[in-house]
């Protein structure tokens, strides 16, 4: 039956209900059918998702978006440092999600901003957004199956970082803080791989360039894990940085890779280091270890 085929293709019961009562349609060979319809070899099934309302508190705004890739299902963006991903008490407007909603409104996309990945306000780099809740569901499922890969470039304090290390430490909220996280045994499981790319000195200040791969997606995961390892990120005042000459945590999401939710093709999107990190590196001297 049609409903069995749809379930095999990750169309959930919740999505079917939304399609039935929210203005969507399921067509077999261009004819509307219900989920009890019996399919035949060669049938072509089309799922038309219902229009979505903008999320409450997320107003469309018009601003600059650096678009890396876009198609009917996904939108890949290059977020600058200093811009929040979603609205918050401190940043209620001007966020990436506000601008995505503005773009959708302008383009006639009847959806809200489904931010598949998020970055801290002062972290730059690649962000993925979905164009409807079903695509968001499919990409989130890939994260749980570790098919969705995120790679970061960061500057970490100190020149004694091992060539490679895996940090597997649980992360939870720090007592007395609504923002700060810490390694704590009753926290959520978190795993980060760290690869050393080179060690440098900047005005007598030693630091290392590292590549980090996330296996989980806890809040402030990289920043917390690197502090725990004794190598807080350059400029990260919240997590113990000693040097304050860099104006933010030196962290950049350099690439995202996943299977396209519709075509299943492996895709990879990259972002070059932003100007402030490039300048800091150019003003530094490589240490020959």
Structural class: alpha+beta
Cα-atom radius of gyration? 22 Å
Largest sheet: 11 strands, mixed
- Helix amount, in percent? 10-25%
Beta fraction: 25-35%
Overall shape? elongated
Number of helical segments with 4 or more residues: 6
Mean pLDDT: 93
Spans of at least 5 consecutive residues with low confidence: none
Between the first and last Cα atoms, what is the distance in angstroms? 65 Å
Q: Please count the beta strands (DSSP E, at least 2 residues each).
A: 16
Question: Could you outline the blueprint of secondary structure elements for this entry?
Answer:
Layout: H1 2-8, H2 13-22, E1 25-28, E2 31-32, E3 45-48, E4 67-70, E5 74-79, H3 96-107, E6 114-115, E7 124-130, H4 133-144, E8 149-157, E9 164-168, E10 171-173, E11 181-183, E12 191-202, E13 205-214, H5 221-228, E14 251-259, E15 266-270, H6 275-282, E16 285-286
Parallel strand pairs: 7-14
Antiparallel strand pairs: 1-2, 1-3, 4-5, 5-7, 6-7, 8-13, 8-14, 9-12, 10-11, 12-13, 12-16, 14-15
Can you put this structure into words, describing what you see?
By secondary structure, this protein is α+β, with helices and mostly antiparallel strands. It contains 6 helices and 16 strands. A hairpin with an 8-residue loop joins strand 6 and strand 7. The longest helix has 12 residues. The termini are far apart.
